[in-house]
Amino acid sequence: MVVCAWGSRRITMRNLVVLALFVPFICALQLAGENFSPPVLPHTSFGFGGSAIGGSDNTSSVYIVSNTTELREALALPFSKTIYVNGTINGNQLPNGSFATCQDYIDMTGEPGAEIRQFNFTLYILGFNTTYMSMVDQAISDNVTFDGMNATDYKALIDHMNGWRPVVLDTQKAQVGFTFTNNTSLIGLDENSALNGINLYVHSVDNIWIRNLKLVSPKDCFPAPETFPSSWNAEYDAVGLVTSTNVWLDGCELQDQLDGEYVQPDIIDGWQVWSTMSAPKYIVDHQRQVDRFDGLFDCEDGTDNITFSHNIVRNHHKSMLLGGGTKEFNLDLGRMHFTIFGNHFNNSASRNPLMRFGTFDVFANVYETLNTAGPVFNPTNVTLERRTDLPDDAVFEYNLGVYNQSTVQLQDNVFVQTGPDANDTSRIFTISEATLPQFPARVCIHESNATTPPHFLSTLNGHAIDNLTTLAQDTIDFFVENGDAVEGAVIITCEDIGIGYTLPRSFDSAEEVLNYVLEQAGQSLQT
Asked: Where does this protein reside within or beyond the cell (predicted)?
């Protein structure tokens, strides 16, 4: 007799057909069992996400998963549960145990022999390149072949690529994307637990814990260009929250590959063209970097009551977007409450975080940056002149992005910078979309909550930033004077702004913050 576990229920083949009409049927999952000893993790939930209690820890609702099939089935269970991740689960692992490549996603789309399986990412990119396409048009006019094909047929093939791309993208999304149901805890079994190349899509659910995991964002096989030739729109975040509430993400490491190192952008044909043309021969050099990664932790569309604590965010270029675009403001206003505490931002080039529309408490984080880009402006220069010698694509952009109608509280943050511009403070803040003085963004900068005076100030490289409030005002003035913000659309004030909950601890010095974060951030088990 076949017997499968479904929560606390036992299902036999006699009632399988009837039951399958009403509830999901799960046979592959492994219950942890009565003798299972769960890992003991540090920290308890607090802050805006403090009401998240996670999933059930009853023995009938605790699962251990080791591959994508088990993970997907466990996350889909419609009752409160705790899921422990054993080892590394690779998002591109297929049910047969093999690992999908980008070409596999193309070959898995549609039926065998379908035209869509001719999709080619390089041809898709070339279709946006007016220089290249003019060469194809010239070949058609000259009635010659192009790249070994009839030029008219070649152009028709390229014209199909833009329509085919979202379809093959959906094939990859179905493989690497994992959704949640309400009342779920997803926890690493030990310090080696990892979700590699997986997009956790937390959509319209409540009460979620994600803890003690290495979270490696998927590499988008088929990103779309946003502007020629400098920016891209990749599809996948490591964790994406949409219209979800009461979420606690703690003790995780968010990055672009398992070892945590920076991923060099791909060089791919077709994104930029320098050509010499003498029909019937066309010589083309077309290589350009392609960005295949989106955010690490992006939240939008009225997501609310979130705590992001004791995590490491490393070697990524646009890490945390909190708040959707201006078109979705009606979904975010009055919601979007975030606590960002005790995190280590290690070589995170921007969005640490970017904050729109909501309320954001950013406390006791360490920002460690290699600053090679140079100051945006000189804070000691009262004219706040924009520097004209900056590269277009500076590696480090900024830490804290204050965007429209946000309320931002800052306290006990520590900045550590190396590089030729190690003492530059002009990139701590950036201002954007500040156009509504009648609905201003508000920035409140507290002194420390030290138990005894003197209260310490935020520090850069171990030295007090004399007045972070003044620096924030200088940043606002700079953007206003350069026409990038409207006067009064961002104000410095602590009026009617306060901390409405108890923080895990207080700090008497910046050194205490630094030591605490370096010890507590990232994967760890309590000893």
From this structure: Secreted
Give long-range contacts, CB 8 A cutoff, 24+ apart: 284-287: 284/132, 284/135, 286/126, 286/129, 286/132
Per-residue pLDDT tens over the stretch 170-179: 999 999 999 9
- Answering whether pTM is above 0.70, one says yes
**What span, in angstroms and rounded, lies between the C-alpha atoms of 187 and 185?**
6
Report the pLDDT value the prediction gives residue 9, as an integer from 0 to 100: 41
| Cα(388)–Cα(62) distance, integer angstroms | 58
Residue 385 predicted with pLDDT over 60: no
> Residue 90 pLDDT > 50, yes or no?
yes
How many angstroms separate the CA atoms of 38 and 62, rounded? Answer: 10
DSSP string, 334-358: T--EEEEES-EEEEE-S-SSEE-SS
Q: What is the pLDDT of residue 377?
A: 79
Q: What are the residue boundaries of the structural domains of the chain, listed by start?
A: 3-90, 246-256+305-502+513-520
For the segment 157-178, the average pLDDT, to the nearest whole number, is 98
Euclidean distance between the first and the last CA atom of the chain, given in angstroms as a whole number: 43
Higher-confidence residue of 267 and 282: namely 267
CA–CA separation, 11 vs 20, rounded Å?
10
CA gap 218, 198 in Å, rounded: 5
Name residue, tokens 């070409």.
103
Hey, which bits of 104-244 come out as E strands?
145-146, 149-150, 177-179, 184-188, 194-196, 199-203, 206-211, 214-216, 224-227, 231-233, 239-242
Question: Is 320 in contact with 353 (CB distance < 8 Å)?
Answer: yes
Q: What is the pLDDT of residues 101-121, one digit of tens each?
A: 999 999 999 999 999 999 999
User: What are the backbone angles phi and psi of residue 393, rounded to the nearest 5°?
Assistant: -125, 65
d(CA 106, CA 26) in angstroms, rounded, equals 29
Does 65 score more than 70 pLDDT? Answer: yes
Residue 292: its H or E element: none
Distance of CA 62 to the CA centre of its chain: 28
Q: C-alpha angle with apex 389: 383 to 391, nearest 5 degrees?
A: 125
Are 239 and 249 in contact by the 8 Å Cβ rule? The answer is yes
Which residues pair with residue 508 across a beta bridge?
none
Is residue 91 a contact partner of residue 236, using CB atoms and an 8 Å limit?
no
Angle at Cα 200 formed by Cα 196 and Cα 205, nearest 5°? 160
Instruction: State the Cα angle at 338 between 336 and 341, rounded to 5°.
Output: 170
